[in-house]
From TrEMBL:
<dbReference type="Pfam" id="PF03145">
    <property type="entry name" value="Sina_TRAF"/>
</dbReference>
<comment type="similarity">
    <text>Belongs to the SINA (Seven in absentia) family.</text>
</comment>
<dbReference type="InterPro" id="IPR013010">
    <property type="entry name" value="Znf_SIAH"/>
</dbReference>
<keyword id="KW-0863">Zinc-finger</keyword>
<dbReference type="InterPro" id="IPR018121">
    <property type="entry name" value="7-in-absentia-prot_TRAF-dom"/>
</dbReference>
<protein>
    <recommendedName>
        <fullName>SIAH-type domain-containing protein</fullName>
    </recommendedName>
</protein>
<dbReference type="GO" id="GO:0006511">
    <property type="term" value="P:ubiquitin-dependent protein catabolic process"/>
</dbReference>
<dbReference type="Pfam" id="PF21361">
    <property type="entry name" value="Sina_ZnF"/>
</dbReference>
<dbReference type="InterPro" id="IPR008974">
    <property type="entry name" value="TRAF-like"/>
</dbReference>
<feature type="domain" description="SIAH-type">
    <location>
        <begin position="1"/>
        <end position="34"/>
    </location>
</feature>
<keyword id="KW-0862">Zinc</keyword>
<dbReference type="GO" id="GO:0016567">
    <property type="term" value="P:protein ubiquitination"/>
</dbReference>
<dbReference type="GO" id="GO:0061630">
    <property type="term" value="F:ubiquitin protein ligase activity"/>
</dbReference>
<keyword id="KW-0479">Metal-binding</keyword>
<dbReference type="GO" id="GO:0008270">
    <property type="term" value="F:zinc ion binding"/>
</dbReference>
<dbReference type="InterPro" id="IPR052088">
    <property type="entry name" value="E3_ubiquitin-ligase_SINA"/>
</dbReference>
<dbReference type="GO" id="GO:0005737">
    <property type="term" value="C:cytoplasm"/>
</dbReference>
Length: 182
């Protein structure tokens, strides 16, 4: 339970056994897994899949964001939930759970005059990717809704997920105020 124990690699595409501190893992994700790295607290993520009926091998993506001097992992993947394929996006904080509670995030997906919004607190990378996914702690999109958002002939999945990360701070009177990064 030592707070200085190493972190496990948050890359979900393989059972990566690399451990280390956050700066080491950020370099590892960039250099070894070729993960996209972005600066800023807002994002516009596009996911396109030619055959939306296939979700075998859990199609997924990972993007790392740097904002407020911290690193965050945006996960997006497809998997079977019972008999139905679903798509899920969620954010994990690269640090401990008590630090993660200082941040909030929102994710939004939509098209054709409809949208779904998720707001939450990022989970720490101390919680495994599988634990977060299996708890459904993120934006969960059923295939029929994802295809509706994709428009067209429903033969191609095209989702645009936008979002932002903000930091919660307290004023002297105890009121929480969101602080957006510039």
């Amino acid at each position: 339970m030592c707070s200085f124990r190493p972190y496990s690699c948050p890359y979900a595409g393989s059972e990566c056994s690399v451990t280390g501190d956050i700066p080491y893992l950020v370099n590892h994700l960039r250099d070894d897994h070729k993960v996209d790295m972005h600066s800023g607290c807002t994002f516009n993520h596009r996911y396109v899949k030619s055959n939306p009926r296939e979700v075998e091998n859990a199609t997924w993506m990972l993007t790392v964001f740097h904002c407020f001097g911290q690193y965050f992992c945006l996960h997006f993947e497809a998997f079977q939930l019972g008999m139905a394929p679903v798509y899920m996006a969620f954010l994990r904080f690269m640090g401990d759970e008590n630090e993660a509670r200082n941040y909030s995030y929102s994710l939004e997906v939509g098209a054709n005059g409809r949208k779904m919004v998720w707001e939450g607190t990022p989970r720490s990378v101390r919680d495994s990717h599988r634990k977060v996914r299996d708890s459904h702690d993120g934006l969960l999109i059923q295939r029929n809704m994802a295809l509706f958002f994709s428009g067209g002939d429903r033969k191609e999945l095209k989702l645009r997920i936008t979002g932002r990360i903000w930091k919660e701070t307290q004023t002297p009177d105890g009121t929480c105020v969101p602080v957006l990064c510039s």
